[in-house]
Specification:
Blueprint (H helix, E strand, L loop, with lengths): L2 H11 L4 H7 L4 H8 L1 H14 L3 E7 L6 E6 L7 E4 L11 E7 L2 E6 L3 E6 L4 E4 L5 H4 L14 E8 L4 E9 L6 E7 L4 E8 L1 E2 L8 E3 L2 E8 L8 E6 L5 E3 L22 E8 L2 E7 L8 E7 L8 E8 L11 E5 L5 E5 L6 E4 L5 E3 L9 E7 L6
Antiparallel strand pairs: 1-2, 1-25, 2-3, 4-5, 5-6, 6-7, 8-9, 9-10, 10-11, 12-14, 13-14, 14-15, 15-16, 17-18, 18-19, 19-20, 21-22, 22-23, 23-24
Protein name: Pyridoxal phosphate phosphatase-related protein
Length: 378
């Protein structure tokens, strides 16, 4: 083979989906070595992220005990695949859930069995070591809750150190604070960092990964204001910082032009189209319960907060106060909304109508997350 053709092979192969590349490893030893090479893994991932290819919608059965997980192509919602879950679901046991997605890896949390990093495309999985007894035994756990505000989680990729990190915050029994542990995939170990400087009034979602940091909604310790602060943990420095907020004076279109509900709370932080987003809760509105979803178009710039969509309890299809924005449709005219326990729904940005998501062969009630197929190793 000429050197010219040899140089083209990586550029050609990086355009194929993971399933095909895994089959190509049987072609020759040189191809196996190439596909297993970390540099090719990075090239393949960069091509997928740059071109929006190999994007999947993960469907997690949130009602029935199910040993299978499901995924479809996000653009077409076709080509349903099934694969075994990292943790077995039992009727009498807690179910697992996805706490984050990054570069093809999913972080899976099981209340009793722990946390796993899982690449559903390759089938590889790594189970994280348990926390030290002194940390675990001081945890003020709330048994029986799917989302427990005394256990706060997040998963992301530290671009500075080229390391995947899991964050686990545990409310202390003995101190009025959250002890914070960070797991490093490179070191395969946990370490404790500074306690979280905020409390969590609600915990309907896990940390939102944007700009090399995980984001949550919180309140000052010993204060309960239904979520007044958007804050982040930088995965490189492992330090906390506040995110600038947008204008609090929001005109409710159903309140005759009166500025009402200025004392709103943030329900959760999320990611929409690669940007940080937050849900603003106006359940104390005298006219109607509703939320707005705002998107920070330019990270860190207060003036870039943009109202993206409006959901009313009376009109919407799911539980709006547990809702989170999952992603834009291929044409950008709709947003997939998920409340974590019922049917996800498409929100039409133009006429503010909704349509429930239905995928043949998949469970009816699912929690969803977007991920990109990759060869990233755990």
């Amino acid at each position: 083979m000429s050197p010219f053709l040899s140089d083209l092979i990586p550029d050609i192969l990086c355009r194929f989906p993971v399933k095909t590349l895994l089959r190509f490893k049987c072609v020759a030893k040189t191809w196996r070595s190439l596909i297993d090479d970390p540099h090719f893994t990075k090239l393949h991932l960069q091509h997928s992220l740059r071109n929006g290819t190999n994007v999947k919608l993960f469907l997690d059965n949130c009602i029935e005990c199910d040993d299978k997980a499901y995924a479809v192509d996000f653009d077409s919602l076709d080509n349903l695949v099934r694969f075994p879950r990292p943790f077995v679901a039992e009727i009498t046991k807690y179910r697992s859930r996805i706490i984050g997605s990054c570069n093809g890896l999913l972080a899976v949390y099981h209340r009793e069995s722990g946390i796993a990093l899982w690449n559903p495309s390759t089938g590889k999985c790594r189970y994280l070591p348990p926390l030290d007894d002194d940390i675990a035994n001081d945890h003020d756990a709330l048994p029986g809750h799917h989302y427990d505000k005394n256990t706060v989680l997040g998963f992301g990729y530290d671009e500075i150190s080229n390391d995947y990190k899991v964050v686990k915050m545990l409310r202390s029994k003995t101190q009025n604070s959250f002890k914070v542990m960070v797991y490093s995939l490179k070191a395969d170990s946990w370490k404790r960092i500074d306690d979280c400087p905020y409390d969590f009034p609600t915990n309907y979602n896990d940390g939102a990964y944007v700009n090399n940091a995980l984001h949550w909604v919180g309140d000052e310790i010993d204060e309960f204001h239904r979520g007044q602060v958007i804050f982040a943990l930088d995965l490189a420095t492992e330090k906390y910082y506040d995110v600038p907020e947008g204008d609090r004076r929001i005109k409710n279109k159903e309140c005759s032009g009166v500025f009402c509900c200025e004392h709103f709370g943030y329900m959760n932080a999320g990611v929409l189209g690669g940007c940080l987003c937050v849900s603003r809760d106006y359940s104390n509105c005298p006219v109607r319960d509703y939320i707005y979803v705002w998107v920070m178009k330019e990270y860190g710039v207060k003036e870039s907060w943009t109202k993206q969509l409006y959901l009313s309890r009376d009109e919407w299809l799911t539980n709006i106060f547990h809702s989170r924005a999952v992603g834009y449709s291929k044409n950008g005219d709709k947003v997939l909304i998920d409340d974590g326990c019922r049917q996800p729904a498409w929100f039409n940005l133009e006429d503010e109508t909704g349509e429930t998501l239905s995928i043949a062969g998949a469970p009816r009630f699912v929690s969803t997350v977007i991920y990109v197929e990759s060869l990233v190793s755990v």
